[in-house]
Amino acid sequence: MSSTAPAVHAENLRKRYGDKVAVDDVNLRVDTGTVLGVLGTNGAGKTTTVEMIAGLRTPDRGRVSVLGLDPRRDRAKVRQVLGVQLQQAYLHHALTVAELIALYRSFYPAPRPTEELLELVDLAEQRGIRFEKLSGGQQQRLSIALALAGRPRVVILDELTTGLDPRARRRMWQAIERLRDEDVTVLLVSHAMEEVERLCDRVALIDAGRVIALDTPSGLISRAGAEDLDGAFVALTGKELEDAE
Prior knowledge:
- There is one protein chain.
- The chain has 245 residues and is an alpha/beta fold.
- The chain folds into two domains: 1-81 and 154-165 and 176-238, Rossmann fold; 89-151, no CATH class.
- It contains nine helices and nine strands.
- The strands form two sheets. A six-stranded mixed beta sheet has the order 5-6-7-3-8-9, sandwiched between helices. A three-stranded antiparallel beta sheet has the order 2-1-4, with helices on one face.
- A hairpin with a 2-residue loop joins strand 1 and strand 2.
- Helix 8 packs across helix 9.
- The longest helix has 16 residues, at 166-181.
- It is globular.
- The protein starts with 7 loop residues before the first strand and ends in an 8-residue tail after the last helix.
- The mean pLDDT is 90.
- Keywords: Antibiotic resistance, ATP-binding, Cell membrane, Membrane, Nucleotide-binding, Translocase, Transport.
- One of its GO terms (molecular function) is ATP binding.
- This is ABC-2 type transport system ATP-binding protein.
- It is found in: Cell membrane.
């Protein structure tokens, strides 16, 4: 991990929708090569936070830096170094898996090879299938492949394994571990505690738009006096795990 400038730095982020404050003075620093888990119940502000980091939403207040770049002012440069996979995929339904990968690879000067991307997300057998014919889990995996097509140095993954079967979930975990080995920085929004405990170097707990705890998984467990991350989540947020799903 880098001891110099962080790969991602969010300072005093705030976002309001009407009378509701979705994100309230969030600060995050993510060092290079770190996998940061972002945990919170539905409506806690975690997706809005990462969307502001990605430049998809404009904060009402605060600043974001991704590898020293402003996601909105330096949008073209950021697109070359940041990969984003969100919960909802808006892709051309008539294109095949291989055609979508070819399209996204064309956006970058030195993309990952098609076969590597297909293998990474276990979609080699579906290469000729149109997006609209894929299962929900297969569409999710394709979205991840597209987020990784340009060899990004920072990746945002929102609910990485939602809707995936156990085999596909394990493959996605292996893909994240491979990214860490490549010194890629990952922001992983999740409510799957086993996933976070296995993959994440540090975890940010977000509740009511604020970061209420930021530590290693073991540090959170110790701080809460819990037996596992499930118990730590309940102790620190006062909410049951099912409230996050």
